[in-house]
Amino acid sequence: MLPESPAALAAVAGLLGLCVGSFLNVVIHRLPKMMEREWQAQCAELRGEAPSTAGEPLSLARPRSRCPACGHPISALENIPLVSYLMLRGKCAGCGTGIPLRYPVVEAATGLLSAYAAWHFGPSLQAVGALLLAWALIALAAIDFDTQLLPDSITLPLLWAGLAFNLAGTYVPLEMAVLGAMAGYLSLWSIYWLFKLATGKEGMGYGDFKLLAALGAWLGWQMLPAIILLSSVVGAAVGLTLIVAVRHGRNVPIPFGPYLAAAGIIAAFWGPQITHGYLGLLH
Questions:
Q1: What value does the mean pLDDT take over residues 175-190?
Q2: Burial class (CB in 10 A: 0-12, 13-18, 19+), 103
Q3: Cβ distance 180 to 217 under 8 Å?
């Protein structure tokens, strides 16, 4: 039934995406805290100290979701993607504190991208890969926006997953995927060191190298120029807007990960058309 109806397949994928988006909000909120705890434990171990036992154990599954302001446990009815936010009018049922708009935005974006991936690729391995890629990129973009971190626990599995999908040439031949991973990492690594040697400052983090390597593993080396160009143009436009309109300090770093992630999603869906378009302009 679903293979014969693109609309039904897209609807099912969209509903799945809404549920995944709700989980991604947990990942975005908790994973940086889990990383910070792990770093503190490692530092304590290097100092020869016993690891701290303060605070309750934290994982993606436990403890149960609750309001960070008052500790009100989030019930199942309060955790329905998008619907609960609208029913609660964007406020905690326990204390009335406003729920950040990011939560429904992440859920809606994940649902819409999931529906489009299913409609665009149809019932295929390409659709499955596009879903996984989009979900990971949404999580990475939001985490980097909040904390300027791109966790290895997402970027490295994403890189290996891209190579695994391309073992059978799902998106590009394996040789192009391997070259894409290598070129993606080395291109930003080179820019990083050139900028640091010229200015004495760090222009980006190592997580950006790994993210572009992962995108190269999924989409191949030919797509890297388009991804870098798209992310740079969008990043420059947003950066100038923040400086002019919001008076964002020039010395305050702006994370590059969200722009790489957005460019990766665009390239995954419309990369060939974009590539043919700018190659056509060169002739």
A1: 95
A2: buried
A3: yes
